[in-house]
Design a protein that fits this description.
With 232 residues, this protein is mainly beta. The chain has one domain. It contains one helix and 14 strands, in the order αββββββββββββββ. The strands form three sheets. The chain has an eight-stranded antiparallel beta barrel with strand order 1-3-4-7-9-10-13-14. β9 and β10 form a beta hairpin. It starts with a helix and ends in an 8-residue tail after the last strand. About 7% of the residues have low confidence.
Length: 232
């Protein structure tokens, strides 16, 4: 190899190595999920509002899930903001009020991380007050909540999921005119395998207890996963 070609080859190798070192960590993620169009679900009385309506409240914001391999370390991040002409964001017990919320939790694979699993309903995973649905990825976590980029709450118990959508456009959960109820014997058939939702439930104590926050992101894209085909 002549010297010019040798120098060119060395330069290209160095460039490739430098790009890899500077490349975003997302290139090494096993999972990468992006979500937008968040909604705050429920009111001070009912955190689920199966019939939808005004208590399925659109806000602005986005969410990101990153999960690396081989150790499975990762992070769930959500950011929401109430429009200036609407009511502020608040926990259902009224203890925290603000317009901009940032939520973050590490993904802990030791506490029951689920992939390609059925959740909610009678499955024993998630919240029995929601209908059964197929989750691409789901888990429990301890969330840190930052309100208006100042006040901070830590160690909030939560359950998050990327799963087949159960909410209709109006926020209701229904099939063929039947509105869902946790009293139904059959809790299946209310999800849409053609759409995904990213959901977060924050609890007063542990999953299944009083709900403090219920968020649903209706525009979800799985940008990277261990499987070949993804639903957007």
């Amino acid at each position: 190899m002549t010297k010019p070609l040798l120098w060119l080859a060395m330069g290209l190798a160095a460039l490739a190595a430098g790009w890899w070192l500077l490349a975003p960590e997302s290139h090494r993620d096993a999972w990468r999920v992006e979500a937008e169009q968040p909604h705050v679900v429920g009111d001070s009385v009912d955190p689920f509002i199966y019939a939808g309506g005004e208590a399925f409240r659109p806000v602005s914001g986005s969410a990101t899930i990153r999960l690396a391999e081989p150790d499975g370390s990762g992070t769930v991040r959500l950011s929401i903001e109430a429009p200036a002409d609407s009511a502020p964001l608040t926990l259902r017990d009224g203890s925290v009020v603000g317009r901009h919320w940032d939520l973050v939790a590490p993904i802990d694979t030791s506490t029951g991380l689920q992939s390609d699993a059925f959740i909610h309903g009678s499955t024993g995973i998630g919240d029995h007050r929601l209908p059964e649905t197929a989750a691409r990825l789901a888990g429990v976590g301890r969330f840190e909540l930052t309100v208006d980029r100042a006040r901070r709450l830590e160690n909030l118990s939560g359950f998050w999921s990327v799963a087949d959508a159960v909410r209709q456009e109006d926020g209701s959960i229904r099939q063929q005119g039947l509105v869902y109820s946790p009293l139904l014997r059959d809790k299946t058939g209310f999800s849409d395998p053609g759409r995904l939702e990213l959901t977060l439930l924050l609890y007063e104590e542990e999953p299944g207890s009083n709900v403090l926050v219920h968020l649903v992101f209706t525009d979800v894209v799985v940008e990277r996963s261990p499987t070949a085909s993804d639903v957007g």
